[in-house]
Amino acid sequence: MTIRMLALTLLTAALLCPLCLSVTVSSSKPKVEVHEHTDAVLSCEFRTEKDQNPRIEWKKKGKGVTFVYFDNKFTGSYAGRAKMEGATLTIHSVTQKDSGEYRCEVTASQDHVNLGEATVTLNVLVPPHVPSCEVPNSVFIGSALELNCKDKFSVPPATYRWYKDNKALTTTGEAPYSMDANKGTLKFKSVSKADAGMYRCESSNSVGAPKSCVTKQMKVIEYPLNTTILIAAASGLAALVLLCCVCVCVCRRQGCCRESKKAKSSKSYNPPPPPPPPTRNFKHYKQTQSFMI
């Protein structure tokens, strides 16, 4: 009888164990995708066993962790454009900067396990913007060429299509060009006269309508004959001037060497000083004169 009573007591304690007295937090939609400039609803549901007034906080994870909702008020850029219903967070007119991972935290101090959390990922979708197109005004015939198109703001990333004279370009058959729809490039190995025309690029994704850049005219011109002759003449003249400079430098160097050798030879030879002029003996001269008389 004692064993039965003990088993009944343990069963009752297990049903009413303290582990059951804990806060639980969840989200009915952990991944949210909305268009730019619309409202994003980040759901957060919680249940407590004892605490009827738990503390609710929302945080955003980025390079660091920032508060969105703290001490019963919104912080930073969320002030004035967000609201709370229970623990569910609604952000009005979201932009791409609002994309990221959010965490709902509920603290129930009277529960045995007093902290619960749920994570919601927000992805803000952005329709295509007008892409930037790089099309030269003119290009020489026979040269290689690459046209570029880029839309940096669309989410998901845009794909691209090129048009010439309002006709979509395709790479079927023996096309003299190649295209990359993901990078937005249009490449020519060797431009011909037939490639001249009006070019534009179009960006598109699954969010909104496609956008095109302004049409630009590209001319294909030949190298003028006088320009070719002028380039050849300039190259020849430059080579001649360089050769003359080298010759002058060599000649000057050899002349300097000769002068230095002469200077060295003149310094090495020191001629003896001239002998002093003969001195006359006046007494001897006088005796000679008297003898002659």
Automatic annotation (TrEMBL):
Residues 263-283 are annotated as: Disordered. It comes from Menidia menidia (Atlantic silverside). It comes from the Eukaryota. GO terms for cellular component: cell surface; plasma membrane; protein complex involved in cell adhesion; tight junction. The lineage of its organism: Eukaryota, Metazoa, Chordata, Craniata, Vertebrata. Pfam families: Ig_3, V-set. This is (Atlantic silverside) hypothetical protein. Gene3D superfamilies: Immunoglobulins. Residues 18-121, 128-215 form the Ig-like domain. SUPFAM superfamilies: Immunoglobulin. The chain crosses the membrane at residues 229-251. Residues 270-279 have a biased composition (Pro residues). Keywords: Membrane, Signal, Transmembrane, Transmembrane helix. GO terms for biological process: leukocyte cell-cell adhesion. Residues 1-22 form the signal peptide.
